[in-house]
Amino acid sequence: xxxxxxxxxxxxxxxxxxxxxxxxxxxxxxxxxxxxxxxxxxxxxxxxxxxxxxxxxxxxxxxxxxxxxxxxxxxxxxxxxxxxxxxxxxxxxxxxxxxxxxxxxxxxxxxxxxxxxxxxxxxxxxxxxxxxxxxxxxxxxxxxxxxxxxxxxxxxxxxxxxxxxxxxxxxxxxxxxxxxxxxxxxxxxxxxxxxxxxxxxxxxxxxxxxxxxxxxxxxxxxxxxxxxxxxxxxxxxxxxxxxxxxxxxxxxxxxxxxxxxxxxxxxxxxxxxxxxxxxxxxxxxxxxxxxxxxxxxxxxxxxxxxxxxxxxxxxxxxxxxxxxxxxxxxxxxxxxxxxxxxxxxxxxxxxxxxxxxxxxxxxxxxxxxxxxxxxxxxxxxxxxxxxxxxxxxxxxxxxxxxxxxxxxxxxxxxxxxxxxxxxxxxxxxxxxxxxxxxxxxxxxxxxxxxxxxxxxxxxxxxxxxxxxxxxxxxxxxxxxxxxxxxxxxxxxxxxxxxxxxxxxxxxxxxxxxxxxxxxxxxxxxxxxxxxxxxxxxxxxxxxxxxxxxxxxxxxxxxxxxxxxxxxxxxxxxxxxxxxxxxxxxxxxxxxxxxxxx
Length: 597
Known about the structure:
Elements: E1 6-9, E2 12-15, E3 18-19, E4 23-27, H1 37-46, E5 51-55, H2 58-61, H3 77-86, E6 90-94, H4 110-113, H5 125-143, E7 153-157, H6 169-181, E8 187-193, H7 196-202, E9 208-213, H8 217-227, E10 234-238, E11 252-253, H9 255-267, E12 271-278, E13 289-291, E14 296-298, H10 317-329, H11 340-343, E15 352-355, H12 362-367, E16 373-375, E17 390-398, E18 401-402, E19 405-417, E20 419-424, E21 427-433, E22 441-445, E23 449-457, E24 473-480, E25 483-484, E26 488-493, H13 500-503, E27 507-513, E28 519-522, E29 528-533, E30 536-542, E31 550-552, E32 560-568, E33 575-579, E34 591-592
Parallel strand pairs: 4-5, 4-12, 5-6, 6-7, 7-8, 8-9, 9-10, 10-12, 11-34
Antiparallel strand pairs: 1-2, 2-3, 13-14, 15-33, 16-26, 17-23, 17-26, 18-19, 19-22, 19-24, 20-21, 20-23, 24-25, 27-32, 28-31, 28-33, 29-30, 29-32
Helix pairs in contact: 9-10
């Protein structure tokens, strides 16, 4: 029988029979350029960590139904695990299938959550059957790298924060069996918030229950002593920082405050994983959204998360504060000197202001962006087989009024997810979102057929809570006052798939670089849109902030000629700036206290 390298007894954690403590940090391979994996992992090790933790984002590997998952290049999970091993780190893998992580759709592929009638995260055969097929492809990569096989994987998580979502314990037990039947023999665990409510929903007997929390660790330890008396306390997600939503503040947490909370748990013999140790970037269209019960809250492109290792790999004051606590927990008060190559600031391109060329109008671009699909009622993104990007909805409608007596009418959209740009007979009429869609926009009608064009932008799928898996696009209908408009043509705009032919139509800027180095792109004067660097989709920008620069890591920059392409959804600016530092928003306004976590 194969024995796991980690075990516990009488609330004490052991590694190979020796008393042990996990000192870990989260780094997500899908948020870090592969050429930077080794650097970020080496810095995690230098912080005093013995373990790296990563989620596995299913939709990153298999965005399209019926196409085999991709585990090559940036998606080479095995290479990431092997790189961690080379840096002397153990690995904890969290394969979900649900991960949250502020990642689009919580990691679920849109083709899965868009299956009519499917029940997510429960014992629905449509759901569990799809997971089995995914696990059949994924788990051999993890199982072959377990400690029992000479690899670095020492623990694997069952689902993720299930107590925040449901109470189907049969599903949790099924998930555990699905891992075991596919060769996972290392220590299995669940992860939930640090109080009774979350434990009630997500924990099961016979499986190690770990916690996720950013404050009141002593209270959580007491809860574990009462609820799980034989298990060691492990905060698998210590929130030392926080993520940002568009239109809100950039969050910062004081390094001393975060370190004091870590010390509190370590002094109580707990184990800790910093979430995040290095956050990275929601490149492309990877950022998800939250929902506060009234409106969508899309997450920004940066996932810096005020982490100890910044988005560009720089070591922050929080790195040094956490390093002191991690070494102290190992009985080392005098910290070893950091190697010079780890202390060095990442190279950056000189600041430049680049002219931005004009481009065709947004409506013209959208009309030519894909193959039209006709239907009587508007189709959702899921019905169109589109996971992200945009859809242009077009139809003719008679707007009330007469040529000699024009009348005001309202165009309303029911079930709008997320943000819609409306044109009437080619004239831009305004923007609607998931809150204002039902209120509509006032337009003028003359009683003759008018062409309606509605471009719906997917701002990121909901990644947490009961609305996870919610559809995108127009889920209800389009009303002229109270009258539905039928017979639509939909044109998918698959931004993530755009290559040279499509990008050549966009506004552009160019620059030369002597050698690859980091840079930060800003678009002063522009409103909202998407940016590509040398054909790679960096992500979204939005004038409402808090983020005002997009991080472009050195591996995406070429020695010599470089090309920037911009798709502006509002008012385009005339320049692109290369900046030498990040601007993620004012710090003080978004400063968070432990009590808020």
